[in-house]
Amino acid sequence: MASLVAGIDEVGRGCIAGPVIAAAVIFAPGQDTHGLADSKRLRPDRRLVLAGRICSESLAWAVGRAEVSEIDRLNILRATHLAMCRAVAALPVPPDWVRVDGNRYPPLDRPGEAIVGGDASVAEIAAASILAKVFRDREMQVLDRLCPGYALGVHKGYPTRLHIDRLASRGASFFHRRSFAPVRAVIDRSSAS
Asked: Is 30 helix (H, G, I), strand (E, B) or coil?
């Protein structure tokens, strides 16, 4: 029997707001994975189409997350690894081998490897990057509607000039990562005044 390979990638590591989301995807051996690419290279509408295809055609997929409180408590690397472990644990089919985008392998109970640039060279990782991006972007759109004024639907929590300006004028909210320097600076300024 051919071995089952899971690809894992995350989205949201460089953000100053919201969770970090990881996805894991397993394709059936020999499955056609034509058209998959790193999520950052795809238009949003193309990502949505591919995410639907991945969910319906892959052998298994799952999403894991680490919340803002976990990111602040653990640090972003450990929280990212936690989200990845949760994604793998949620897979309905256990993988024989795991390929992770990046240069560090998370503390999984499965053998595997970290691959720098894996989202551009490994179909399973590319698929995981697409799912993670689509899931996180949707969540940030919902959060934008629940907490208007920060433009989360525009910048998705990344530290853009717009986000930093809104953060400075409105203050940090529950979805901001207090351990990250731009957020910490706003909190320190408001507590000093």
From this structure: coil
